Amino acid sequence: MTDTVEAVEAALRQREWVPTEDEQALGGEFLFRRGELQKDPRPVMPVRPEPWGPWTTQYLAWLTDLVTMADVLVDQWRTRPAAGSPMVTLIRAYVAPARPFGPLAHHMEQAWVTDPPALPTPDEVTHHAEQHGCSREEAERNLSDRAVKAWEDGCLPVAARRQIDDVTRSMIGTGSVLATAVIGDAGH
């Protein structure tokens, strides 16, 4: 978390900042829309086995959509948040680390559209299922997973993967403070 987020968290815990109903509504709407964005990942890719969640390519697209959504939401909120509203600060701080990923997200989406990995053929699926004693569905999932993972590994620099991990950790911390502000439970 940034110093700014830590300061907002401290103010929240010490009750120096008690979010107004409008601030809670804004934060709640942001969290709701964030969840909605996660329901329809893009680009369309083979479903990733649990518990892994979306592919990195889809996660990057989600990050860029999240940044856009946050900007539009804050700018068009039904009542202008007060200048310096801690809720706006939290929302902007939540998406700030994701902003630089726009070009990489676009590159990965375009690469998926123009040069996706070869997914397993029916014969490969049958052979894998027989060889490993699993269902055709499981064999297809396993082979597709390997193909997409290898494709992403080839398209995505290792340094970018580390940056994505760092951004995710930052967003988790800020998101926790944001959720606490929305639900009004700062440990009291």
Structure, explained:
With about 190 residues, the protein is mainly α. The chain is about 70% helix and about 0% strand. It is built from eight helices and no strands. α2 (about 20-40) packs parallel to α4 (about 85-95) and α6 (about 120-130) packs across α7. The longest helix has 26 residues, at about 160-185. The relative contact order is 0.17. The mean pLDDT is about 95.
Gist of the model:
By secondary structure, the chain is mainly alpha-helical. It has 8 helices and no strands. Helix 6 (122-132) crosses helix 7 (136-155).
List the topology elements.
Elements: H1 3-13, H2 21-39, H3 56-76, H4 86-95, H5 102-114, H6 122-132, H7 136-155, H8 158-183
Helix pairs in contact: 2-3, 2-4, 2-8, 3-4, 3-5, 4-8, 6-7
Which structural category do the helix and sheet elements fall into?
A: mainly alpha
Largest sheet: none
- The assembly state of the depicted protein chains is single chain
Share of residues in strands: under 5%
Number of strands: 0
Salient structural properties:
188 residues, mainly alpha, 8 helices, 70% helix, 0% strand, elongated
